[in-house]
Design a protein that fits this description.
Blueprint lengths: L2 H12 L3 H9 L2 H12 L2 H17 L9 H19 L21 H4 L21 H7 L4 H12 L4 H7 L4 H18 L14 H16 L2 H5 L2 E8 L6 E3 L1 H14 L1 E9 L2 E9 L7 E11 L2 E9 L15
Parallel strand pairs: 1-6
Antiparallel strand pairs: 1-2, 3-4, 4-5, 5-6
Length: about 325
């Protein structure tokens, strides 16, 4: 959509044409959702806030006086996120594991792939791994709302200091100060090897590891499974406030899983990280039913962390409630 087309569509939307407004906002909706997801750490809450932001944009369209429509939408969405964070009583002061962030949820790569850098808007960058993986999302939740917003705008979206300050109604020095404090907090809480992650999708090595894990998982073969994970493997299950460390705990979870019934798992991609979705057929049942989603962090060819989520976001991953075939 050229600037002329945008101006004409804005004029139509201001005149009450809802389809014109849908065309204006539809091309930005996914990136706004990802932005709100980074701010909030929750897929579901990001959906609610984006809906609210777009409603506010429709109601306030007369206040748009030209310029960058995408930036205007980001301003509305960011302020909606800030309001949501301030209204929430959720706060974390440390980050030993994802157990401290019980509201964190996964994000399907299939939806991240909807964000591409169109020729007309080179700043709408494709989502890189280091800006969306779970450790980064969790660490962001440590930051006060304003620091979080500035850091995302500057270091993730690539906005200038002046652009970020304007969006947040800050002076440039205040925005720069918030950015430096936010960066310092992230450095203290992110895995050391994170700086080496730049892939837009899991590597072939990680995909191969997932295939072997899935095979061992489906067979209930803990012996094989234990060779594919680190001895200090960590398991967290948001929103449960527990973190389990080591092979002994993993073995106990494997025994419990075996007693529950028969399993089938399929590889998926989440947060630019390897993952697999598990279906369970309980004794007496005839169907494999959606049960859980595990997102993996891999170091040196072995899994060092499993973050286990329930199945309610399976539809967002394009997964059925019952495994077919």
């Amino acid at each position: 959509m050229t600037s002329t087309d945008t101006d004409e569509t804005v004029a139509a939307a201001k005149a009450g044409d809802e389809s014109a407004f849908a065309r204006l906002t539809g091309r930005h909706r996914r990136e706004l959702h990802v932005h709100c997801y980074r701010m909030l750490g929750s897929f579901d809450e990001a959906e609610d806030v984006v809906q609210e932001a777009l409603l506010n944009a429709w109601r306030g369209l007369d206040t748009f006086d030209g310029g960058n429509f995408r930036a205007w939408l980001y301003r509305i969405a960011t302020n909606a996120c800030l309001d949501a964070i301030r209204k929430s009583s959720r706060r974390i002061s440390s980050l030993r594991s994802f157990a401290e962030v019980p509201w964190i949820q996964p994000y399907p790569d299939r939806l991240l792939d909807e964000i591409a850098p169109p020729d007309a808007e080179p700043h709408a960058l494709a989502v890189a791994r280091e800006t969306i993986e779970l450790a980064f999302l969790a660490a962001l939740q440590l930051l006060p709302p304003q620091q979080r917003a500035v850091l995302i705008l500057r270091d993730v979206l690539g906005w200038t200091a002046a652009e970020s300050a304007t969006l947040l109604d800050l002076t440039v020095p205040a925005a720069n100060s918030a950015l430096q404090r936010g960066r310092a907090t992230l450095r203290e809480n992110l895995p050391e090897q994170r700086g080496e992650w730049s892939a837009a999708a899991p590597s072939e090595e990680e995909r191969a590891l997932v295939r072997r894990l899935v095979e061992a998982h489906d067979r209930g073969d803990f012996g094989s499974l234990s060779t594919l994970v680190r001895d200090d493997v960590r398991v967290t299950m948001p929103p449960e406030p527990h973190c389990y460390i080591g092979l002994e705990h993993l073995a106990r979870h494997a025994r419990i899983a075996e007693e529950m019934g028969e399993w089938r798992a399929v590889g998926v991609d989440s947060n630019r990280m390897p993952a697999f979705a598990s279906y369970l057929r309980r004794p007496g049942d005839t169907e494999f039913r959606a049960f859980k989603l595990d997102v993996l962090r891999v170091v040196d060819g072995r899994a060092i962390e499993f973050t286990t989520f329930d199945s309610h976001l399976f539809p967002a991953f394009g997964l059925d409630a019952i495994l077919r075939g």
